[in-house]
Amino acid sequence: QRLGPRSNSIDKGKTPLNQQLAEQLETFDTTIPWKNAHVEDGTTLSWYFPPLSQVFMARGSTVVNLPAKAVMAFLFPEKDTARTQLIKNVYFDLARETDSKRKGDLISVWIRLKYASWMQEREVLYLMRTFEAENGNCFVILTNLDKWDEHPPQDDLVRVRISSTSGYIIRPLSPTSCSLTFLISADIKRWIPKWLTKQLSETNGRVVTHFRKHYEPLGAAAAFS
Hints:
Blueprint lengths: L16 H15 L3 E6 L2 E6 L6 E10 L3 H8 L4 H11 L4 E9 L2 E8 L8 E11 L5 E7 L13 E5 L3 E9 L2 E11 L6 H12 L1 H9 L10
Parallel strand pairs: 6-8
Antiparallel strand pairs: 1-2, 2-3, 3-10, 4-5, 5-6, 6-7, 7-9, 8-10, 9-10
């Protein structure tokens, strides 16, 4: 089962990698037949589960009263302390433990996930990168990370795999506002009940709600301080 839409139309010989991934993320947002779209606390939540698959796809979208570039700066912070705080503020109902490390233009992230207490625990590794399109749209892209020496595979943890069509799309609405959409496509490995899959999808979508509530009051200047 592939994760998300194919990107065969992208000329990989000519298009920079970050642009390829941004275009793939945009395609993911606009072509998946999203289900059960409903508004909760100012955020539109929706999901899609490919048939006969342990892959789930989740989407959350909201409006943030901050410039697009400020939102991207908050989501891809320069300082380690700001990055740790971001994970606590935005992923607090998904993350049990976290670690992250910046190297050049990439950020490595490890999260030990909160699932039901009766389930074997999961973990996820991914890389973060950014891209700014000519039309002003900004992207914070999440791609799967297969190996990180500081976090080797553990027998008591099941490693979730995310696809390259995951991340944030930030679309300017005005000089001081933007829409923020979070998309994730993940293979959660091994069977879990469908009701829990739906619950996890909505929990993932709510990260944009958490972002808006915490970072919007700080103002744009705080993103670059």
